Amino acid sequence: MLSRLVLTDFRNHAEAVLHPGRGFVVLTGDNGAGKTNVLEAVSLLAPGRGLRRAPLSDMARQGGAGGFGVATTLFPSRLREGLGEGVSFAPSSKDLAEPLPNPSRKQEGESQVGTGTLATAPERRIVRINGATAAATALAEWLTVLWLTPAMDRLFVEPAGERRRFLDRLTLALRPDHAGHANRYEAAMRARNRLLAEDGPHDDAWLSALEAQMAEHGAAIDAARRETVARLGERLADQPAGPFARAGLALEGWTDTGTLAADLAQGRRRDAAAGRTLAGPHRSDLAVTHLEKQQPAALCSTGEQKALLLGLVLAHAELTAARTGRAPVLLLDEVAAHLDPSRRAALFDRLAATGGQVWMTGTERSPFDGIGQASWYDVADGRITARS
């Protein structure tokens, strides 16, 4: 959980410092004030491209010095033991370019995490963990972040790639090494596709080496996804019916049978003609069913789909806390606006029970009246003000 969040030249925020407490963090303000930008900044403290999947260069504030910074201090966590003392991390472009000294001692177990870009390399992401440069995939070992945004309301009718990315975020919370396997698989697949696109004879030895890498990491990806689907499916099935519909889950499409390397070798001509690889875990899909109705989620109403998605994320947060001892940070953008009062109350109760930090946005405070204790912030024209 975040005890301090610092933004520098991020989106419409020139500079902002927040000191959220444990539990609920509520950001209210007019549309366009910059509330979702704050959630996006937090989402960048996990592997991946954040909740908007935007190019890094789009995140730097227009009119700023170039580049941006997002940094946080994390509350002590039970996930890791023997954490070293943190270091100060100021998320300016200059500080991202050079390591910082350790001018202060932090409380035992705290850690410092930061990410950003430089003006000279707007699409090169830099990550620092306790002052040391790290790969973005290493963020999964320190913080788990999940989100729901209005754009995700159509998740069940979007192309399969959107559901795969959603499933991979769920999997990453339970298996921090999942991001590494996914990155290595994607890198090997891109290299193979480039080789197959070249004119003339191909280097068979190189192709075989790449296909062996894809088979190794593809098997790990498939196994981790299936474990997540199974454990989450069990948790959903055991829950009583409530205000949020229960989802049945299955992984469809490609299945690892131990023959991917051979299948890829045999399919080189086919893949060259198609201009892409047609076998592997990148061809899988997450199938979601409304358990009570025994109906595919894609055929459910918009309201039912939203309820399914909410129930799925809540169950996953509970599963993650139970299995890792660390509840994920949840980012819920405009989640309360379209719920009736009884469902809002049920949502707040479920969220509080996870024990995690929950960031929520809204245009008004009234939908959050029943939330109890929270860290409240007003957002207006890129300015963030704490209030009671």
From TrEMBL:
PROSITE patterns: RECF_1, RECF_2
GO cellular component terms attached to this protein's record: cytoplasm
Localization annotation: Cytoplasm
Keyword flag Metal-binding: no
Stretches for region Disordered: 87-118
Keyword check for Nucleotide-binding: yes
InterPro entries for the chain: DNA-binding_RecF, DNA-binding_RecF_CS, P-loop_NTPase, RecF/RecN/SMC_N, RecF_2
Segments forming domain RecF/RecN/SMC N-terminal: 1-358
Any single biological process term in GO: DNA replication
Binding sites annotated in the UniProt record for ATP: G29, D30, N31, G32, A33, G34, K35, T36
Role, per record: The RecF protein is involved in DNA metabolism; it is required for DNA replication and normal SOS inducibility. RecF binds preferentially to single-stranded, linear DNA. It also seems to bind ATP.
HAMAP family attached to this UniProt entry: RecF
Family: Belongs to the RecF family.
Name of this chain's protein: DNA replication and repair protein RecF
Native source organism of the sequence: Sphingomonas panacisoli
Gene: recF
